[in-house]
Design a protein that fits this description.
The complex is a heterodimer. By secondary structure, chain A is an alpha/beta fold. Chain A is built from nine helices and eleven strands. Chain A has one domain: Class I glutamine amidotransferase (GATase) domain (Rossmann fold). Chain A is 30% helix and 21% strand. In chain A, helix 1 links the parallel strand 1 and strand 2. The mean pLDDT of chain A is 95. In chain B, the strands form nine sheets. Chain B has a seven-stranded mixed sheet with strand order 19-21-17-22-20-23-24, sandwiched between helices. Chain B has a seven-stranded mixed sheet with strand order 37-39-36-40-38-41-42. In chain B, strands 3-1-2-5-4-6 form a six-stranded antiparallel sheet. In chain B, helix 11 runs parallel beside helix 24. At the A-B interface, helix 1, helix 3, strand 5, strand 6 and strand 7 of A face helix 1, helix 3, helix 14, helix 16 and strand 26 of B.
Chain lengths: 292, 1085
């Protein structure tokens, strides 16, 4: 029987550390997932072309030395065979998703947002938080309805944890206006009213216009600072014990299983399935509906 | 190009871009942010001698492309002149993580071998500094605040300092020869030898070594091998010293003890560890079937589920942290990571814990030479644990910070790591190790340098002013992560048969220990990869350079492991093989440089010793329900310099006292600190360190799911005993156990599937008439604490599975000149000590860490009140026991103005706990939680029931109204006791009104009482307060009741009140927002 599932590649190695939960999100979303050490991918042991979605998980690649994501991006670009393969992967309309350190790597590689159309030319960077500190903090995010991003389809807001010291998005002056005005900005840190904010701590890093997530114009190349893979489950939410009490008092004694972050995985796998004429197992859809 | 062949590159943020480096430095210097600009400095040195040096234009291009951010940085080559700047770089030989990464990347992208040295430069504009400082003064001001001379060096170009001499990175070659060491002479000569070589061996131990080398059979054999026949080589003596160090051998816990107390003299021939710690576990193991491997490996192992076991170890890293807090704590956390990683066939790391005991950061007394300011120590250890944990991808889920002046010279840094160990690995039980003769000794990970030489023996002595700097290291979490990632791949493939970590004592210890499994080893010290040249053979053998594991690899598997390691860019080197010769043999250049009988080295050689212990009081059985023992009245407190102590205790205004308690250093919010740790990486987080509607409430313990495909979870908690130590160490230990278990039970842990770990940190308990005249009493305290730990572990049926001790927490130095006050009591010295000698000791401290199974994550419970109208219960007996508690400490500060209180405070009874009763209570709570009957659960500890209630209200942002006279045992007690007593074993719970009967049915014959209700406000949605700290919008702010004595309620939270009655009158009435403010008004950690 032919396996019609979407194939996702999750990179690890060199200090990447969120690969297991990232892979688990894909498993729950009905994809076939491979966790591969980057050195195997660079040396061709694992072939990038065999996959539909490439993932740069969070972590501390090379200890964030030089700058977060910098050393890993340099390494990837320096490996010629890989860099050309990666560019072809993009041109083939495949998907790339980076979270936190993975987003930093993608920004430094210059594979998003690509406002000017030059792949590999960095247009944004991620700087030290205005607070000067690493922070683990859950944030509320407003989702841009005008963004072409396939990962956030159907979402208007989402709650996720941020865990970074360098998350302030800075755009190059010459593309800044186009960047902020277009659909490149996928998510923005929001205040209690749901509006984008630059105010700490709702915006944990001081990102201009509250930019938290960015995509390219296809909506398939996507990076964000908050961690969807840390909210795969209902019990990941910091207030789930409160929500549980509320549900029980309403007589609802079955708790949701999935967390809000799972929606991005479902969207990614669905979009890739549509794009490449693949399928999502039926039980995944059932579980997702049960979790609503 | 600069002198020395190095190109200096300066990278600063462009104008208008955030300068994090400069801003952090400005904060440390006390200058305005604009006064300081930070720059990253890279020295590039072409390592290939035969190539043309790097041209400036080439260096500029390279820096722009690979080192600087094209959007935000600007790059210069060479030195910027005309500005006053100070440059801080690492001393040669200290791990330079930034430089090493730059070097690795440049090698990959350029194919060219460049050595990179990293430094930081701070340019200071006098206009923005606090006052116009003269150059010299500015330099010393900066030196004292921007670096640590133990690991860093400074240069001020304006003062003519030359560029850092980089050629010293490669140190001059040392003699690759061995030196025989004479053990002749009298006791004084042996002591001198021990001190000069930092051996930390006693005269008796050195005599035992001498005796070994005097045996005729040994002499003949040694002569045949070309070894000095009648004396050890330096390699041998150093290896013996490491193996026999207190750090590795735990002599204080293994030696026989004679214990004299007021009633009689008791012999403890088997020593403290066997009698009390392992003894307790042996008893408990009869009713606990989840123990897998205890006290035998690097960490304890207990059953988790059908496929996996849990591994847990907690260590201390006190000595290095006192000298170099950042490096000390960083190596502390990455060091303890290697314990579970080196247990059995190696565990996957799940979580970290950290507990800090430090002096108050606002310390104002003059510091004796050799002691760093407490604020700097706290900042350094916090940063060290942050970098160690975050970069390794291990969540830091639980911890504590405890302030006490007595930690001034000897801060305590406890670091713990838990792991998940597969029960079957490559067809073998995962918790076992096996080595066959012929298996290869493989060193994997980092290289060996001069860093960390003599750490084990150094920590086995007290810290002194002249402590050598080689004992301090900077860890490299990423190199370690790469090595541990490789092991995770090699493990299921069966590429190794055993492994252990390289920690204290380095290879001499790791290889020496593993060699016992096969019965011998032969190690080639010249094959060990080095990161500094010129190390002597003995230095290679004992260096504690970090990030290394030692493996036993079957010869037929080596090629496969080597190939995998090469692909992962992890260094793995064969450095010898295991044998069954019965000997530890070391060679250098083919020549034998050490040969010691394993049996002698590990078992028979170390001379037995009997330690003397005494305790002035009698030794009663504490497992009764008598009121807490009374202790002597307090001495008048020494007033802080220039401080105005409050007038809170002793006054009837309990609301003010509660507000003051919430702001007390040992109670106030730790949010700022906790947020800097990643506490949810790996995705299994269930109960976080910060909980509640605004995610800022103090969680009792952490819960996480080790397997994302299973609902089964783990709880991690701790209980710290310290304040009771000087009065009743037995009780201190019982409380520490109780608190750890209670905290775990609060979040849903099964008290019948729970294990504990002990970490003792003690001042030196070995008597010496001059250096340690009160040693017997400290040993007596240690005996009492062990007895308490033993009895409590049995009473709760909580097996001890692992532990560690640090028993030299003393500082020896000189009194400050001019007789300036110290601000704390020095430890006594004997008649032989010089008049200006100063000894400062940490107080006896016991950390108990608990690891427990939470059967189903969705039944975990958090401490915040959930819903208005919920019933509030107190479980456990309250007695008038305020002595040594937070309220008494507050009273002590206030005593200067307020006469000593009457009643409970004056009576000074120590807090008690009844473990038998507490155990029944905890089991009942757990049973109720399994039926979803508990909405919130929080332990009452520091500051008593009043603080616990306030914390539940703050976290839930809900009011509470209750009558604490209803609490079990409280009727008839004074309101101070009811509110603030610290009797152990108590919990505050909230329950839905509809569940009342079903909940109460779990507590027949137990001290449970309904004391009040969560105060009613309008219904809320859980989405509110979702993004952090802002206060909730509340209806009708005009309808706020006036709160007497505390001013009008402020802010939007003013409608919710904490109202506590006792003996028929309201004793506390405060707005939740006001309590929260008091609790959160903490320094920025």
């Amino acid at each position: 029987m032919v396996d019609k599932r979407v194939r996702a590649l999750v990179l690890t190695g060199y200090g990447i550390n969120c690969e297991q939960e990232m892979a688990h999100g894909y498993r729950l979303a009905g994809a076939r997932v491979t966790v591969a050490h980057l050195s195997d991918v660079l040396e061709g042991e694992v072939n990038l072309d065999d996959f539909h979605i490439l993932n740069f998980p969070g972590g501390f690649s090379f200890g964030d030395h030089l700058a977060a994501g910098r050393a890993l991006a340099d390494k990837l670009k320096a490996t010629r065979g890989f860099w050309s393969k990666l560019k072809r992967f993009v041109k083939d309309g495949k998907f790339i998703w980076g979270v936190c350190n993975g987003f930093q790597v993608m920004a430094k590689l210059g594979i998003l947002p690509v406002v000017e159309g030059k792949l590999g030319d960095p247009e944004i960077t991620l700087m030290a938080n205005d607070s000067g500190r690493f922070e683990d903090r859950w944030v509320q995010l407003a989702v841009n309805p005008d963004s072409p991003c396939v990962y956030t389809r159907g979402l208007s807001e989402i709650t996720l944890p941020c865990r970074h010291g360098e998350g302030k998005v800075v755009a190059r002056e010459d593309i800044k206006d186009r960047f902020l005005a277009g659909g490149y900005v996928v998510m923005q840190y929001a205040d209690d009213t749901g509006l984008p904010t630059e105010q700490y701590p709702h915006n944990p890093n001081g990102s201009e216009a509250g930019v938290a997530a960015v995509c390219d114009e296809s909506g398939k190349i996507f990076g964000l600072m908050p961690h969807p893979e840390a909210h795969l489950f209902f019990t990941n939410h910091p207030n789930w014990t409160h929500k549980k009490v509320e549900l029980f008092r309403k007589g609802i004694r079955t708790l949701p299983v999935e967390g809000e972050g799972m929606q991005l995985f479902h969207n990614a796998v669905r979009a890739a399935a549509e794009e490449f004429d693949l399928s999502v197992p039926a039980e995944v859809t059932e579980r997702q509906l049960a979790s609503r | 190009m600069s002198p020395g062949g190095a190109t200096r590159i300066e990278i600063r943020p462009r104008p208008g871009c955030m300068d994090g480096l400069g801003r952090r430095a400005a904060r440390k210097l006390g200058f305005s942010a604009e006064a300081v600009t930070g720059a990253r400095i890279y020295y590039l040195i072409d390592a290939a001698q035969d190539r043309e040096p790097l041209a400036d234009s080439e260096a500029l291009e390279l820096a722009r492309t690979y080192l600087a951010d094209p959007l935000t940085d600007e790059v210069r080559i060479g030195e910027t002149r005309g500005e006053w700047a100070i440059e801080v770089g690492l001393r040669p030989g200290v791990t330079d993580n930034e430089g090493n990464v730059a070097s690795e990347i440049l090698r990959e992208v350029l194919g060219r071998s460049l050595r990179v040295h990293h430094a930081r430069q701070f340019t200071i504009r006098a206009a923005g500094s606090a006052q116009a400082l003269e150059g010299g003064t500015l330099a010393s001001h900066c030196r004292a605040r921007l670096g640590n001379p133990l690991v860093e060096r400074f240069r001020v170009p304006a003062e003519g300092d030359p560029p850092f001499a980089l050629d010293t990175v490669a140190e001059p070659p040392g003699p690759a020869t061995i030196v025989p060491v004479s053990l002749g002479g009298d006791a004084a000569a042996l002591m001198r030898l021990s001190k000069e070589r930092v051996l930390a061996l006693s005269v008796a131990e050195l005599r035992s070594v001498r005796e070994y080398f005097e045996r005729p059979a040994h002499q003949a054999e040694r002569a045949g091998l070309g070894l000095p026949p009648d004396r050890p080589t330096d390699v041998e003596l150093e290896a013996i010293a490491q193996t026999w160090s207190e750090h590795c051998k735990h002599k204080v816990f293994n030696d026989a003890v004679v214990f004299r107390h007021a009633d009689r003299t008791v012999a403890i021939p088997e020593g403290l560890f066997r009698t009390f710690i392992r003894g307790a576990t042996e008893v408990v193991s009869r009713e606990r079937d989840f123990l897998v491997s205890v006290f035998t490996d690097n960490a304890g192992v207990v059953r988790f589920d059908e496929d996996y076991d849990l591994v847990f170890k907690v260590e201390t890293h006190n000595s290095p942290s006192a000298l170099e807090p950042y490096g000390g704590a960083l190596t502390g956390i990455v060091g303890v990571n290697r314990d579970p990683a080196g247990t059995g066939l190696g565990a996957q790391l799940l979580f970290n814990t950290d507990v800090f005991c430090v002096a108050p950061p606002d310390w104002t007394y003059p510091l004796p030479e050799g002691i760093l300011p407490p604020a700097r120590i706290l900042a350094g250890i916090r940063q060290g644990v942050e970098d160690g944990g975050n970069q390794s991808g291990i969540p830091t889920v639980n911890g504590a910070v405890f302030f006490d002046a007595r930690f001034l010279a000897r801060p305590l840094v406890f670091c713990g790591t838990g792991g998940l160990l597969a029960r079957q690995i490559a067809g073998r039980p995962g918790h076992t190790k096996q080595i066959l003769p012929g298996d290869l000794i493989v060193m994997l990970g980092g290289r060996v340098g001069r860093d960390g030489i003599h750490g084990a023996t150094f920590s086995s002595e007290g810290v002194a002013e002249e402590t050598p700097s080689g004992v301090v290291q900077i860890g490299d979490p990423i190199t370690q992560k790469r090595a541990l990632d490789l092991l995770a791949e090699a493990r299921p493939l069966g590429l190794y048969r055993a492994l252990t970590d390289n920690g204290a004592g380095g290879l001499s210890s790791s290889v020496g220990e593993l060699a016992q499994l096969s019965g011998g080893c032969e190690i080639h010290l010249d094959q060990v990869p080095l990161k500094a040249i010129g190390l002597c053979p003995w230095e290679i053998f004992v260096s504690e350079s970090q990030e290394r594991m030692t493996l036993a690899v079957p010869p037929e598997r080596w090629d496969q492991l080597a190939a995998l390691a090469a692909r992962r860019q992890v260094e793995a080197t064969v450095i010898g093989h295991f044998t069954d010769s019965g000997h530890l043999t070391a060679r250098f250049g083919g020549k034998v440089v050490a040969r010691l009988e394993l049996e002698w080295l590990h078992h028979t050689g170390l001379p037995a010793r009997t330690l003397e212990a005494e305790w002035p009081g009698s030794v009663p059985d504490r497992h009764d329900s008598a009121p807490g023992p009374a202790v002597a009245p307090l001495d008048p407190a020494p007033g802080g310099p220039g401080e105005d102590p409050g007038t809170l205790a002793g006054s009837p205004d309990r609301t003010s006292a509660l507000l003051a308690l919430l702001g007390a250093p040992n109670i106030c919010s730790r949010e700022g600190l906790i947020r800097q740790y990643d506490h949810e990486v790996q995705g299994g987080s269930v109960i976080k360190p910060l909980v509640g509607i605004h995610r800022d409430g103090p969680s009792d313990a952490a819960v996480l799911r080790p397997r994302l495909d299973s609902g089964r979870a783990v709880a991690v908690s701790n209980g710290l005993g310290c304040r009771l130590a000087e009065f009743d160490p037995y009780l201190m230990a019982v409380h520490a156990v109780d608190e750890a278990i209670r905290n775990a039970v609060c979040v849903g842990a099964d008290p019948d599937h729970l294990a504990i770990l002990d970490n003792f940190c003690w001042p030196d308990p070995v008597h010496d008439p001059d250096r340690n005249p009160d040693g017997r009493r400290k040993m007596g305290a240690l005996v009492r604490a062990c007895q308490g730990l033993h009895d409590a572990a049995i009473a709760y049926a909580a097996p001890l599975i692992s532990g560690k001790d640090s028993v030299k927490n003393d500082f020896m130095g000189k009194r400050p000149r001019g007789g300036a006050p110290l601000g704390l009591e020095p430890a006594p010295l004997g008649p032989g000590a010089a008049a200006d000698e100063l000894k400062l000791s940490a107080p006896p401290t016991l950390l108990v860490s608990a690891l427990a199974v939470v059967p189903e994550a969705t039944r975990a419970v958090s401490m915040d009140f959930k819903a208005p109208g919920d019933l509030v219960y107190v479980l456990g007996l309250t007695r008038a026991e305020l002595a040594t508690g937070e309220y008494e400490s507050l009273a002590r500060q206030a005593e200067a103005k307020v006469p000593p209180a009457s009643g409970a405070l004056a009576e000074r009874r120590l807090p008690t706990v009844d473990p038998a009763l507490a155990r029944r209570c905890y089991r009942a709570v757990h049973a109720a939680m399994q039926q979803d009957l508990v909405a919130s659960c929080h332990d009452a500890s520091d500051g008593g029931l009043a603080v616990a209630l306030a914390e539940c209200a703050i976290a839930g942002e809900l009011g509470v109204r209750c009558d604490l006279s209803e609490a079990p045992g409280a009727r008839g007690l004074g309101d101070e006791a009811v509110l603030f007593s610290e009797t152990g074993g108590r919990l505050v719970l909230s329950v839905a009104p509809a569940d009342r009967e079903r909940f109460e049915a779990h507590f027949p014959d137990l001290p449970l009482a309904l004391v009040g209700r969560v105060a009613a406000v309008e219904p809320r949605s859980w989405k509110e307060g979702r993004s952090g700290v802002s206060e909730r919008e509340l209806p009708d702010a005009g309808n706020q009741p006036e709160v007497k004595g505390v001013g009008p309620p402020e802010g939007a939270g003013g409608q919710m009140l904490v109202e506590i009655e006792a003996q028929g009158r309201t004793v506390v009435r405060a707005a939740v927002a006001q309590l929260k403010r008091a609790w959160q008004e903490t320094p920025q950690w």
